[in-house]
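Thread: "does anyone have the structure for this chain?"

Original post by V.I.:
We have the sequence but no experimental structure in hand. Need at least a predicted one for the grant figures.
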Amino acid sequence: MTEYTADIRLVRGRWLFTGETVLADGAVAVEADKVVAIGPWESLRARYPEAPVLGSDGHLVLPGLINAHHHSNGVGHALHGVDDNFLELWLLANGAMRSQPPRLKTLLSSARLLRSGVTTVVDVASVSGDAAACSADLEQRLQAYDQAGIRVALAAGASYDSFLVHGEDDAFLASLSGELRQRVQQLMPPEQPLAKADYLELITGLVQRYREPTGFTDTAATRTRRSSSPGAGFCSSRSSNASSRSMVPALR
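Reply from O.Q.:
Generated one for you, tokens below.
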């Protein structure tokens, strides 16, 4: 049966991986942002003879990739003069990077993700500033992902310790000699302006705002959005427990 739908596009591949099997010379029919049919190329071409075609009999078609740990840094570290180094030194050097608008740097990172075949991402973001500034930062990131059409799990964290080492900074500083301790203390970044209580309130509010009855899915745009705290491995026991308590009501 021939169907004429202006919004239908066909994606053709010599190999089409469905997630369960591989079709030889297959195609995917896409209407707007939904897959409506998968099958042999000749069958779908006969069904949608007027549909524009992406790909060819020399392409591989597969579901979008998932980047499970990403930082939407926009312009790369090297272009800021921050080279790869030991983790602690590299993290401190990041403080010298020039600030970038959250929406624009997320869009630039999204373009790179899409070019490499990634359509779903876990963005491990860091925020700093007062509650209003941090809220605006995260909202702009979510808007950018919405514009790019990428599903995102936005894991937003705020740093309160472990600036020098992965552990207690005070204990590390106490282990140093007096002169060395003074030199290292000069490397410490300014105190985090965002109070811990405000951070938890901000994250809980974002979860509730972007939550749908069936989960964290904007059904109109078919893009998943989620805001959550960073992994427990990067939290003190007290902070992790507080974060868990604040998130439970919003995640039910």
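V.I.: this helps a lot. The mean pLDDT is 81.
O.Q.: and Helices lie at 41-47, 87-93, 102-115, 131-148, 169-174, 178-185, 196-209, 237-251.
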